[in-house]
Design goal:
heterodimer, A: 334 residues, alpha/beta, Rossmann fold, 2 domains, seven-stranded mixed sheet, five-stranded mixed sheet, 13 helices, 20% strand, globular, B: 446 residues, six-stranded parallel sheet, two-stranded antiparallel sheet, 41% helix, EC 1.2.4.4 (chain A), Transketolase-like_Pyr-bd (chain A), Transketo_C/PFOR_II (chain A), transit peptide (chain A), oxidoreductase (chain A)
Amino acid sequence: HFAFTSQCPTQKMNLFQSVTSALDNTLASDPTAVIFGEDVAFGGVFRCTVGLRDKYGKDRVFNTPLCEQGIVGFGIGVAVAGATAIAEIQFADYIYPAFDQIVNEAAKYRYRSGNLFDCGNLTIRAPWGCVGHGSLYHSQSPEAFFAHCPGIKVVIPRSPVQAKGLLLSCIADQNPCIFFEPKILYRAAVEQVPVEAYTVPLSQAEILQEGSDVTLVAWGTQIHVMREVANMAQEKLGVSCELIDLQTILPWDVETVCKSVVKTGRLLISHEAPVTGGFAAEISSTVQEECFLNLEAPISRVCGYDTPFPHIFEPFYIPDKWKCFDAIKRMINY
Amino acid sequence: MAAVRSMNKMYGVCFHAARQTAGLKASRLLQHRAFRVGAVRQQQPFDSTLEKPQFPGASAEFVDHLEFIQPNVISGIPVYRVMDRQGNIINPSQDPQLSKETVLNFYQKMTMLNTMDRILYESQRQGRISFYMTNYGEEGTHIGSAAALDPSDIVFGQYREAGVLMYRGFPLDLFMAQCYANADDLGKGRQMPVHYGSKDLNFVTISSPLATQIPQAAGAAYAVKRENMNRAVICYFGEGAASEGDAHAGFNFSATLECPLIFFCRNNGYAISTPTNEQYRGDGIAARGPGYGMMSIRVDGNDVFAVYNATKEARRRAVAENQPFLIEAMTYRIGHHSTSDDSSAYRSVDEVNYWDKQDHPISRLRHYMTARSWWSEDDERTWRKQSRKMVMEAFERAEKRLKPNPELMFTDVYQEVTPLLSKQRDSMWKHVQQYKEHYPLDLYDK
């Protein structure tokens, strides 16, 4: 699933290494940039910051006390003072103590001050999504909570090449960004990643595969599931799927998705997060407004159930390729 | 040494004796500050033959009798003051000996604030502005601390620090513009009254959620430390906001990350209707500082010179030593919490009158001035008339001004206007054009 051809020098990197590479590029080119959070000094629990403290100094890569509201609040302050702040939250499952700082402060800083002040220099990174055994508190995908918050950007990469480019875009972007990193891909996803800095644009969905019968929309880990679903649909049903990686959840690329649905007439959206109020609901609602007369079948959402993320029942919980395949079958036969 | 003695009284344990037995200097306990930036504390080598605890988490001695430390709230941390309630200097060495010009400026800023408060409070009562919060009784905390800072120091406030902004030179027109949310408002009309901000004056725009500014101030101080340009950060908050988790976060971060930051707590006795004995059970906010490893002091907030002295020294040391300082300024909220509050529901008029008449920062400073023949009855009368006129004129100008163009509802959400917002804006205008008789367009700038 991972392939990238490029003219500039590349190196084989997994996803956590591509994150390290992005951070390394940032610390090298931006003297104000600092990275902080729990356990980042020794390299981080997922090894995303390995080597950076030795290379750039203790004042630039440092541990904070164990306090997410403090980490984000502190990060906002660093950004407001004009420096580049990269805050790590150890698991997206633990981001909620920082919810007030993110929603009431970071997202609204520029608006409420009449653009006198802003925290555009803030990027928050957090490991995200299911990992096989993570259970309630090491598997969550909280993007929907933040999608409802004007003023921040929410970005989720599917692979090392996308991760580095999107993270660098988030860091450069002059708005506070939350960057969720699919933890199951940290080691599992390996690609040839450019060593130098580069960006992948925000708010631009990427069409990974063109098709004519069904539009598939997903992000992060689920893209790899959908790739297999698209192959299954082609082989077993002769159905041609157009696969779209949304990449940026907020602000999302309405145009690309709608253009695709106008073409195919069918839409399947899939995410691990619970279905009720999940981001698929927003996409579904907008698409039916914009493409109502083009739809051949109701929009389908294949998502987690409305339960906390379970431990031993994970294989039954996740929106796997069989559930997605079955949804396509029902849409085609509608 | 004085600090250790007060620690003794506070905790009822003989620290002094313990320290002597250990052979460590008592002052080291409280002042073991490394000047290194972000230094990792060196772990001593472990040696189980020593009868000394080897735990990484605390450096202390063993004790073999069971005794709980008793928090002392009866005779807690003392209140530093320079003037008595009649404005007389108590200890001449503490008189900052500011020039007549400076002291007159203090007085005029405090009284101008008071005058502006009276007029804007009234204007809310008359339905001219939607909301207001006064600063009655706390003018000394604002002016004393603001005067002790450099203009380049960054201020993070809560909502009752308008005097800091006034001291720095924020014009009456802009105070009014924000309260009226007119087209001159630097905030573009987006927030309720008293949510001031000024980039030029390094006063970060106020937000309603309490205590959120506290960890932010720590972050800003950290960034400012790295810049190494002799700047400090000050963070104001009330004793109520100090109960929020964000306060704990901010204190802990600023101490562990060694930030040049002054935490200034206005302990004014009430958080809306909640008195301090329902807000905390310990010895106020100052007593929490040592728990974070932070230098702390309690001052008489109604004594502008005490506030000035403490802030000045805290600022000097915060920058020189890269450590946070906690100043708890004791004062009293003479006014209601806001125009949405009637404090007679929870406190007596007698209590309020005591503070208004017998321990007010403005009258204490006036006594100091009149004792030196720096201010006469005539000066007072003239100034009152002049300051009131200035406020009234700004008020009348602000009231006439149109509100900002509704286009500004859609900008600054992000740095750029997104396609979705652009669409929503067009949709809003289309709707308003069609139903224009139902929208107050005449009040808004074109």
